[in-house]
Amino acid sequence: MLDLYTGGTALTVSVVAFAVTYFTIPPLSSWLRRRGIVGIDIHKLDKPQIPAMGGLSIIAGLGAGLFSLELLGGYSAEIVAFLGTVVIAGAIGVVDDLRPLSSRLKPILTALAAAPILLLGTFNAHPVFPLIGAFRLTILYPALILFAIPVTANAVNMLDVFNGSLSGTLTIVSLTLAAVLAVSGETTTMCLALTLFGSLLAFYLFNRYPARVFGGDAGSLAVGAAVGALAVIGRIELVAVVALVPYIMNAFYGLASVGRLYERREIKPRPVRVRSDGKLEATTERRAPVTLTRLILAEGPMSEQEIVRAMQLLTILSCAMAVLAFLLIEVQ
Amino acid sequence: VRIVTLAAFVIFVCISVIFGVSLIVRVAMLILPYSLTQFRLVVEVLRVPLAIALAYSWLRVWKAITDWYFWRSVKLARGRDEP
Questions:
Q1: What's A161's DSSP letter?
Q2: What is the mean pLDDT of chain A?
């Protein structure tokens, strides 16, 4: 169980992250709008322009939360590695938002975000799996980290398609990971997860339907890399993978349909379209990727809010399965 | 109600991920036991592509099931909408 001080620290860092994200979004949105850094909300009939790159507020919230964690809990290599990963991935996202990167270059660059974890050695090369126990991957594991961070960052980026789809689902994932880390006794990493939860919850209030701000690639890559970093630093690799199954399904379906790495803007045959009544429906275009959204819409049109609600329900289910996976590992 | 099928997909994928690693390891050990040759390292190296092949086969099956579900659902939905 958590002691009172750790519980208080966890609560404080999540509140700090929430407050900083919440109060930086309005001025940041105004600034982004003035500078013309906007994205078109293509799933609305009137195609409004929304400030993009609001993910910078998530990074600011995470930074403030982690700084308060350092103050309350003392120096920890885990905190530095986590923040380094988030900042590097966020910086790559900023570049991508301002000057789109190619579909091949982006995953390669996001692999750089794994550098702080590798350099500070905040990983354990013995991942644990149900039924077979710990696997000794002394040489292979660092290479897997270089692969894991870009995978989570880009998988999260690929599902950032609707108002609140990313923030609304990853809030659930980060809270689940925090609970699992609390039970497994990884208190520092639990605080990292709660910092992420606080930032995402604040961002969700502005990003949910109808969105007043978009996270942009700066937000999605930073948050995706943060989840990957939590999995590695907290030694909950399998639990995180299971919690992210809706994201993995979406990424896998897209990649398997297109047959290569791709950017959403590169794909001409659209997987979904907006009907005249404002609802979304799956297209019957054979060359369009079969994404998670298209699967949700397979049986008929839905509104944007209904799609996001479906995604949240699927995430709750995957998080429940992630807890099951954790219990199986613990029982072992 | 419409996402019940997708929920089943999510559970299928989650269970595959949870037990997949141990299953693949066991199948790889069964197909390529150490008794096959006196060179233990050769067996271990051969097990890696075998495990990758098993994982890839599972991904192909997963994709085939998804495609079948998607196009069948689209066909049924279109048939329902037409007079």
A1: T
A2: 92
Q: Choose the closest CB to B18 out of A242, A296, A299.
A: A242
Within 107-136 of A, beta carbons closer than 8 Å to B belong to 129-132
Rounded to two decimals, the ipTM of the complex is: 0.89
CA–chain centroid gap for A319, Å, is: 14
Average per-residue pLDDT in chain B? 84
- Note whether B10 contacts A246, CB cutoff 8 Å: yes
Q: Which residues of A touch B21 (CB under 8 A)?
A: 129, 132, 238
Query: Which tokens sit at A292?
Result: 């998670």
DSSP for chain B reads -TTHHHHHHHHHHHHHHHHHHHHHHHHHHHHS-GGG-S-HHHHHHHHHHHHHHHHHHHHHHHHHHHHHHHHHHHHHHHHHH--
Q: What is the pLDDT of residues A224-277, one digit of tens each?
A: 999 999 999 999 999 999 999 999 999 988 888 777 666 666 667 788 899 999
pTM strictly above 0.90: yes
Q: Using an 8 Å Cβ cutoff, are A173 and A315 in contact? A: yes
Chain B touched by A313 (CB under 8 Å): yes
CB contact at 8 A, A220 and A88: no
Put simply, the answer to whether B14 touches A238 (Cβ < 8 Å) is no
CA distance A71 to B27: 50
Q: Which residues have a Cβ under 8 Å from the Cβ of A64 and sit 6 or more positions away?
A: A16, A17, A19, A20
Q: Would you say residue A104 has pLDDT above 90?
A: no
Interface size between A and B, measured as CB pairs under 8 A: 89
Could you tell me the sign of the dihedral formed by the alpha carbons of A142, A143, A146, A151, in that order?
Answer: negative
Q: How far is A285 from chain B (nearest CA, A)?
A: 11
**Does B59 contact A317 at a Cβ distance shorter than 8 Å?**
no
Q: Where is A45: in which H helix or E strand?
A: none
User: Distance (Å, rounded) from C-alpha A246 to C-alpha B9?
Assistant: 10
The shortest CB-CB distance from A245 to any of B13, B78, B81 is to: B13
Model confidence over A156-173: pLDDT tens digits? 999 999 999 999 999 999
Contact list, B22 vs chain A (CB under 8 Å): 129-132
- Tell me which chain A residues have a C-beta less than 8 angstroms from the C-beta of B7: 313-314, 317
